[in-house]
Specification:
Largest sheet: 5 strands, parallel
Distance between the termini: 57 Å
CATH architecture of the largest domain: 3-Layer(aba) Sandwich
Helix content: 40-55%
Structural class: alpha/beta
Oligomer: single chain
Strand order of the largest sheet: 2-3-4-1-5
CATH superfamily of the largest domain: P-loop containing nucleotide triphosphate hydrolases
CATH topology of the largest domain: Rossmann fold
Bound molecules: zinc ion
Mean pLDDT: 85
Number of domains: 3
Number of helices: 16
């Protein structure tokens, strides 16, 4: 389990209110992805169950409830986050199956402090999981005097894949939370939540960290050994530790930028191929679910590849950015039916996809649609 890094000001404000007992029952921590909103929710939960908070209104770290909360094992601290729907599950068994998936994911987060979840299918908050939450909120605390719920990425209660019922069921709980219950929601885009939910919570903005804070965290946590490398990753993280962790190269693998370059090439090869199933496979293999920063990086890389293809097709091969891949691009440009104006259309389509990714649309859907569109752009006679 990761410690909460940075955010000194909000911690001081929320911490004092928690210790004084004046914290509202329902809070919404909102801010960019990966800045530590759920970590902050868990920190606040730990403080709420701590028996001897410090003078600075921090959890003492020594009492049993504190230690259990820090290990994600406190029976009254419940962490809900979006989960992928288990495959082939009947509606009756969904609740139980989802609890199994949540337990597995919690175990992974306990075991690896730097764990970054990666799901095959798009995660969401399903009604069945919200019902589990309601049931827990309705029962008495197991250990202390109160229960604390951290509900991460609360906006995923209402995507197409889930059901509006999840948000409505949660709304019921927010309308009349049991007196011994604190609900801490987190969201990247509060605008995507039901207005009725937003109106019942205290909104608290969680800002990006400084690059220096991210860099210091990477070094202290042991995620990165080398200071210049930590600075480089921190600079690309936009103040979000979660994003920095996704940028770390896996042991023995290529650097993140190199990986993105390779993925961009896969996309280019995919749109050049005529087989639709190949395009779908590529969309699912490359689209990072729920990681917009990574998706945008992939779009940048794809644009560069298409620009290079445009340079070759329109007879200006001396301007290649991927000069080392000239052979691949020249072979691609030999394909019949490629049209420079169509490639220009495709580049505009990538810009549109980038904008769409800023909204509440699943990156995999955007990518599947984009690949179909780009394939037909570059092969069809252009719009005049
Ligand atoms: Zn304590």
């Amino acid at each position: 389990m990761l410690p909460l890094a940075g955010h000194a000001e909000i911690r001081a404000v929320l911490g004092r209110r928690a210790v004084a007992g004046t914290l509202p029952q329902s809070i919404l921590l909102h801010g960019p992805a990966g800045v530590g909103k759920q970590r902050m929710g868990l920190w606040l939960a730990q403080l709420l169950v701590c028996q001897k908070p410090t003078h600075a209104a921090e959890p003492c770290g020594g009492c049993q409830p504190c230690q259990m909360a820090a290990r994600l094992q406190h029976p009254d601290v419940h962490w809900f986050f979006p989960l992928p729907r288990p495959e082939g599950t009947s509606p009756e068994r969904l609740r139980e199956k989802l609890e199994g998936v949540r337990a597995t994911e919690l175990e992974a987060r306990r075991a690896d402090r730097l764990h970054v979840p990666a799901y095959e299918r798009t995660p969401a908050h399903y009604l069945a999981a919200i019902q589990t939450l309601q049931r827990l909120a309705g029962s008495r605390p197991a250990m202390g005097r109160r229960k604390v719920f951290v509900v991460g990425e609360a906006e995923l209660m209402v995507p197409q894949e889930s059901s509006p019922e999840a948000a409505n069921a949660f709304l019921k709980l927010l309308e009349e939370p049991p007196a011994d219950t604190t609900l801490i929601l987190t969201a990247e885009r509060p605008g995507a939540l039901l207005p009725t939910i937003v109106s019942r919570v205290l909104p608290v903005r969680v800002r990006p960290l400084s690059s220096a804070e991210v860099s210091a965290f990477l070094l202290e946590s042991g995620a990165v050994q080398d200071a210049p490398e930590a600075d480089r990753i921190a600079a690309a993280s936009a103040g979000a530790i979660g994003r920095a962790l996704r940028l770390l190269p896996a042991a023995g693998s290529a650097s993140p930028l190199e990986r993105q370059r390779q993925q961009g090439r896969t996309l280019l090869e995919t749109v050049l191929s005529s087989a639709a199933p190949v395009r779908f496979a590529a969309a699912h293999a490359t689209a990072p679910a729920g990681a917009r920063g990574e998706f945008l990086g992939l779009m940048d890389s794809f644009s560069v590849w298409l620009r290079d293809l445009l340079a070759v097709v329109s007879g200006a091969p001396e301007h290649l950015l991927h000069g080392g891949e000239a052979d691949l691009l020249h072979r691609a440009a030999q394909r019949p039916g490629l049209h420079p104006l169509g490639i220009a259309d495709a580049l505009r389509r990538i810009d549109a996809a980038r904008e769409m990714a800023e909204g509440n649309v699943n990156p995999q859907l955007i990518l599947a649609d984009l690949l179909r569109g780009v394939h037909s752009d570059i092969h069809a006679a252009p719009h005049v």
